[in-house]
Design a protein that fits this description.
The structure is a single chain. The chain is of the alpha/beta class. Helices cover 34% and strands 16% of the residues. The protein has helices at 10-13, 21-24, 54-64, 78-89, 106-113, 131-137, 160-169, 223-232, 240-252, 257-272, 296-305, 330-342, and strands at 71-74, 96-101, 117-122, 142-148, 173-177, 199-204, 217-220, 278-281, 288-293, 311-312, 322-326. Strand 8 and strand 9 form a beta hairpin. Bound molecules: pyridoxal-5'-phosphate. Pyridoxal-5'-phosphate binds at residues 77-79, 104, 148, 152, 177, 179, 204, 206-207, 212, 217.
C-alpha cells in the first residue's frame, strides 16, 4: 500500500498549526473563562466554536460508520475541501492535477486560484470513465485526479472497479466527489479508503440532506491525511450555530425525500423522452437529468418565459444541445414536463 504522506507538500508536513486558546486548555474544573478575549455576557454565540468539531465528528462517524479521525468538515461546503486538497498536495506553479470533463466547475476555478495547471480529459462518448487516458495524462508532477461520481452534469456514476483501478495504478491522490451518491444504486468508495489510502471521498449536506443553505461539506480520508487537512483549515471554520443546527438536523434524518426524488426522476425521464423537442434523456444516478434537445437555447428561453429555470450545459464538451434539469417536487415536475411537451406547438 502506498503511503499518502509522500504526496503532501513539504511545507505542509512541517507546518506548525495555529494553537487556539481552546487547544492549550487541557481540562479541569473551570468556571471562569478569560483565556480567549471573548465577551463574558452569554448570548448563545459569545464563545468561540470548537475548532475540532468533536461532537459533530462523533455524530458523522456513527452516521457513516467510519472513524471520527477520518473526517474533515468544511464550513463552506465541499468547496472548502476542494481548495484544501490543492493546498495540501499541490505546489503552486509546479504541480498539476487532472479532472474529467465535462464535470463540476469548481475543480478548475480552485486550480486557477491556487496556480495549479488542471489537465482536463474528456469522458468517453458514452460518458464512461477513460481510465487509461487519465493515467496517460499524468506525469511526475501530477498529484491529484478528480473523479465526480455520480458525475455532474452527465448524471452517471462510474463503476467502483474503474475508480479502484485508477487509484491502484496512479502514483498520487484520487479524489472521488460523491455529492450525489445518495441517489445512486452504485456503491460509495467510503469504506474502500483503508485498503486504498490514496483515495479521498467528498460528501456534502447540500443535496440529499437538503441543506445547501447550511454550508457543510465533508472529506473522508485516512487519519494521516485528515490531520493535515485540519491543520490547513481556518481554525474556526464552522460557527457555533451551524454545528448545533447540523447535529439537530442529522438526528432528524433525510425523511422520505430520497426515495421520492428517485421515483420522480424516473417519471420525469420517461415523460421528457416523449416530448417532441427531446432527442435523448441520459440515464441518471443523481437528483438531476441531462436531456439533449433540438435547440438548447430556444428551449431554455421558452422555459424561462414560463417561469422555469434549468441549467444550459450545451457549451460543455460532449454536451451539445444538453440541458440539466433538477428533479423538483411532483407539482414542479408536472409543470416542467408540460412545458417541454408544449415547446414549438
Ligand atoms: C453540488 C455539488 C457539490 C456540493 O458543494 P457544496 O459546496 O458542499 O454545496 C460538490 N460537488 C459537486 C459535483 C456538486 O455538484
Amino acid at each position: 500500500m502506498k503511503s499518502p504522506l509522500k504526496y503532501i507538500r513539504k511545507n505542509i508536513l512541517a507546518l506548525e498549526p495555529y494553537s487556539t486558546a481552546r487547544d492549550e486548555f487541557k481540562g479541569g474544573d473551570i468556571s471562569v473563562w478569560i483565556d480567549a478575549n471573548e465577551s463574558p455576557y452569554q448570548n448563545g454565540v459569545n464563545r468561540y466554536p470548537d475548532p475540532h468539531q468533536k461532537l459533530l465528528k462523533e455524530r458523522i462517524s456513527r452516521l457513516f460508520d467510519v472513524p471520527a479521525d477520518s473526517i474533515f468538515i468544511g464550513g463552506a461546503g465541499s468547496d472548502e475541501a476542494i481548495d484544501i486538497i490543492y493546498r495540501v498536495f499541490c505546489r503552486p506553479a509546479i504541480d498539476n492535477a487532472i479532472a474529467i470533463t465535462p464535470s463540476y466547475g469548481v475543480y478548475k476555478v480552485s486550480a486557477d486560484i491556487n496556480d495549479i495547471q488542471l489537465r482536463e480529459v474528456e469522458l468517453n462518448d458514452d460518458f464512461s470513465l477513460p481510465v487509461d487516458r487519465l493515467l496517460a495524462a499524468a506525469d511526475a508532477h501530477t498529484r491529484v485526479i478528480w473523479i465526480c461520481s455520480p458525475n455532474n452534469p452527465t448524471g452517471n456514476a462510474f463503476p467502483k472497479n474503474d475508480i479502484l483501478r485508477l487509484a491502484d495504478e496512479f502514483d498520487g491522490m484520487v479524489i472521488v466527489d460523491e455529492a450525489y451518491i445518495d441517489f445512486s444504486e452504485k456503491g460509495s468508495l467510503l469504506h474502500d479508503i483503508p485498503q486504498h489510502p490514496n483515495i479521498v471521498v467528498l460528501r456534502t449536506f447540500s443535496k440529499a440532506w437538503g441543506m445547501a443553505g447550511m454550508r457543510a461539506g465533508m472529506a473522508f480520508a485516512v487519519p494521516e491525511v485528515i490531520a493535515f487537512f485540519d491543520r490547513v483549515k481556518y481554525p474556526y471554520n464552522m460557527s457555533v450555530i451551524i454545528q448545533e443546527e447540523l447535529l439537530k438536523r442529522i438526528d432528524e434524518g433525510t425523511g422520505d425525500h430520497i426515495p421520492e426524488i428517485k421515483a420522480e426522476r424516473e417519471r420525469l425521464a420517461k415523460e421528457l423522452s416523449t416530448a417532441d423537442c427531446v432527442e435523448e434523456v441520459y440515464p441518471s444516478d443523481a437528483n438531476f437529468i441531462l436531456v439533449r434537445v433540438s435547440d438548447a437555447q430556444a428551449v431554455y428561453d421558452f422555459l424561462i418565459d414560463n417561469g422555469v429555470i434549468v441549467r444550459n450545459r450545451s457549451k460543455m464538451p460532449l454536451c451539445k444541445g444538453a440541458l440539466r434539469v433538477t428533479v423538483g417536487t411532483p407539482e414542479e415536475n408536472i409543470k416542467t414536463i408540460s412545458l417541454f411537451k408544449k415547446f414549438g406547438k
